[in-house]
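ARCHIVE CARD
Drawer: 12
Card no.: 0347
Subject: one protein chain, sequence and derived structure
Cross-reference: see card 0346
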Amino acid sequence: MKINIILLIFVLTIPAAYGDQCPDKGLQLQVLGSGGSNLSPGRAAPGYIIWYQGHARILVDIGGGTAMRFRATGARFADLETLLLTQVDSAHTADLAALMSSAVNGDRTRALPIYGPVASKTTPSTVSFVRSLFDQKRGAFRDLGSLLSPLGTQTFKLKPHNTSVKSKKTVIGDEKKPNPPVFSNAIFKIYTFNASDKKGEKLGWLIQVGTKKIVFIGDARPNTKNLKYFTNDADILVAHHAIPESGPESIKESFLSPSAIGSVAYKAQVRHLVLGHRRFATLGKEKETAAAIKRKFSGSVHFANDLDCFTP
């Protein structure tokens, strides 16, 4: 009996440990959410962290459930340089308010820039979306209005930006037509590109640290132009696995099939392919997907799970 009591006390006094951090050296990609908006068990909606030297520096998308995943990683909101959105829709942005609510009483003292698409026929622009949430007079979450108000007492402000793609022909690395980064500092250079046949509806993101490249093509459409240029020689290519290879041809006009993803990875000669946004339609079909991709691409293929870490 005495032994049992001692064991019980020991179990109850073990401190909570975060076993979900990435290695604290170099550049890392961590998956916050590997699922979709259909609430797959154990999977948050799309969201990713870029870590550098043990600090969370960049967020890409902030879908439902990712705010809790952000907390689980041990990431500090104060460390973030920017938030990048591939789309302004519920699947990719639902936890923005939850993340901001958790951060308002923290130790961040500098603005957080948010970059995302311009308006389309079905979605607002990034600026309009952020204002619709946090505007002090008309926003959905007016209790967080100081995040936008210049007169607010909040220690940091949100700085949303509509990011348009001015040239479809620009190629990174072309000295004659350099594509200026959307964001840059001493560590990162971040470029964007159109990931849709509709102007600015979906964005892709290229994050470069020295010679290392991590590219997000999100829900790119099959007829997206210049994917090869922006994905070329990527160390990690993150693609969304929304549809199965055996799906109807009609839906393949809106999403990349596994074989199409494999073709993009092959043409770009990427080193690691990470498949996120794993929805009900594709879960359980990993063998079929892997076979379709491998017919085109012989490199490393990873089916992402929440809190997975990848090193370029």
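Annotation on reverse: The first strand starts at residue 27 and ends at 33. Residues 22-310 form a domain with the Metallo-beta-lactamase; Chain A fold (CATH 3.60.15.10).
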